[in-house]
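Render Phosphate transport system permease protein PstA in 3D.
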Amino acid sequence: MTEDTPPAAPAARLNHVSPSRKIKDRAVQGLVYLSFLLALIPLVSVLWTVVGHGIGRLDAQFFQFSMNGVSGKDPGGGAYHAIIGTLEQVAITTVIAVPIAVLTAIYLVEYAGNGRLGKVVSFFVDVMTGIPSIVAGLFVLALWLLTFGFEFSGLAGALALTILMIPTVVRATEEMLKLVPNELREASYALGVPRWRTVTRVVLPTALTGIVTGIMLAVARVMGETAPLLLTIFFTKAINTDPFTGPQGSLPTFIWDQIADPNANAHDRAWTGALVLIAIIMLLNLAARLIARRYRPAAAR
């Protein structure tokens, strides 16, 4: 060791933490745990209530029959028509909204820079984020049904849900793309790879898990919307597997119709419908996580 080299600090001094800092650290840690427990209370309460009230009618008949010809006081009936309608409407919504939203986010992060068009697009995305769901339903009702003359259908409901889903996916994808280190982009550019290939082969795979999570959050949001569906798909108790023709059922409108009925049997069906809706959302989230884990880059596994 030369004369200019400072002596090494004793290990005890390096590892020493003052008592006040330890107290602050434990206090903040306790607040974090307390906040987590407080956040779990409403979640556990909702799940407990829905499972407790809905498990009684969770039988095979609920998944095999519709409410066609079944009154509120009757013990039978099911939500087959509503489950089929919800799955079809959300599938159409996802097919329309996700490509538009992801491409918009790619433009904002990778191409727009500080340009005027990028700022305008970002502003309108913010505006769409705050649009009430019933306004989206009224817009589709006025444009698609009244102006263009199309009939009530699952497609009309999907268009209303698309308006609600796009801004959520745009913002989630945008934030995930911003988290990708610029060093990865620069390394790709240094190898002569064009920007579009860098985005598709480097940036998107790196951010895939977060993007999928944002998409599933958006799906969970639109899957429970009721007001825009009442205005666009109307309401039916019969089975309609064609989302492009005629009124179609959905789980949110099914729950709304059954809970408005004063009979106990109808309320049981409403709670079971809510339980099935939660279960579908959980299964979709699980499937999306498995797909994202399967196709993300090997280095991130």
